[in-house]
Automatic annotation (TrEMBL):
The chain crosses the membrane at residues 7-25, 37-58, 121-142. It comes from the Bacteria. It comes from Soonwooa buanensis. This is Cytochrome c oxidase cbb3-type subunit 3. Gene3D superfamilies: 6.10.280.130, Cytochrome c-like domain (1.10.760.10). Keywords: Heme, Iron, Membrane, Metal-binding, Transmembrane, Transmembrane helix.
């Protein structure tokens, strides 16, 4: 008769598995605070005790059927501490009689096969794995658990929120604080392509709106070119409402205007003007003499 695993070990194993499952699904250690975890732990412990009680009954029945010799042997065995018993049985060989009972009637080259029972811990792990698979596939199919897309969405939202939070904490860009930066030109070009090319055309060569690459300007409210661009884009043109006040109207933020102004500055100062001969619009306004 085989010795049974003590109840406290079964309880530890079950609690360990519960921890794994809850942690996997909650993705944080907060589950300790939920009543679900403690309810599941309580139910599991009760089930372990019920299983132990049934085991006791079966053991008693089996014990009655043993011979006196076997009874003595079994009782002596139960006196050995459990872990020592495990240690001993790891190196214990089956007796010839025991082997005869489980010998399967086929072999090859003198090698015979024994019908050994699978270890309980192995079977337990196997059934746990199967149950876990079912749980996992079901929650993957019918809930948001472990979905790469959902996880991506959530992280994306969290990042956007973090960026908004950051933007709220930095002071807005105004004409006083705006500065030209080479780093803003590429992003400024994107803003320009989205909002401005309808009138100022590709690369600011001019159409409904004036050519932005030459040195002739209708509006010259500021002394330096960069501030001048920021001013006109932020406030619009006082003479022509077609050029709306992108900043005042709230269409673009100060930060965006700083970027798009960097792009306009770039095409005006760091690239050759697009002349009418090259398809650019004819100069409008008066020649500008910007302060550096
Ligand atoms: C709906 C057409 C339209 C759009 C869109 C538009 N503009 Fe203009 N823009 C104009 C017109 C028209 C003028 C000339 C205003 C005037 O006569 O005072 C102008 C003038 C300007 C000027 C001053 C040029 C000068 O010679 O005084 C700048 C700088 C400018 N726009 C930049 C931009 C930027 C940057 C954008 C995109 C954010 C933009 N514009 C979008 C029509 C437009």
């Amino acid at each position: 008769m085989k010795r049974r695993t003590p109840v406290y070990i079964n309880i530890l194993i079950v609690l360990g598995l519960l921890l794994v499952v809850f942690y996997m699904f909650a993705q944080s250690s907060d589950f300790f605070k939920t009543k679900y975890f403690w309810a599941a732990a309580l139910v599991s412990i009760i089930v372990v005790f019920i299983q132990a009680a049934i085991g006791d009954l079966i053991e008693n029945e089996k014990f009655k059927k043993l011979t006196d010799e076997e009874k003595k042997l079994y009782l002596a065995e139960t006196k050995v501490p459990y872990f020592q018993y495990l240690w001993n049985s790891a190196s214990k060989k089956q007796t010839a009689k025991e082997e005869e009972d489980i010998l399967i009637d086929h072999g090859f080259d003198g090698i015979m096969e024994l019908d050994n029972q699978l270890p309980k811990w192995w079977l337990g792990l196997f059934y746990f794995g199967v149950a876990y698979c079912i749980l996992y596939i079901a929650s993957y199919s019918f809930t948001d658990f472990a979905h790469p897309y959902v996880e991506y969405e959530n992280e994306h939202k969290a990042q956007i929120a973090a960026i908004d939070e950051y933007n709220k904490s930095v002071p807005p860009v105004t004409i006083e604080t705006a500065v030209f930066s080479e780093d803003n030109v590429a992003e400024g070009q994107q803003i320009f392509n989205t909002n401005c090319t309808a009138c100022h055309m590709d690369a600011g060569k001019g159409g409904i709106g004036p050519n932005l690459t030459d040195n002739f300007w209708i509006n010259q409210p500021e002394k330096t070119l960069f501030k001048n661009i920021f001013h006109v884009v932020y406030n619009g043109s006082p003479h022509n409402p077609t050029m709306q006040a992108w900043g005042k109207n709230g269409v673009l933020t100060g930060k965006d205007i700083e970027k798009v102004a960097a792009y306009v500055y770039h095409i005006n100062q760091e690239q050759a003007p697009i002349t009418p001969a090259q398809g650019g619009a004819a100069p409008q306004g008066t020649e500008a003499h910007w302060e550096k």
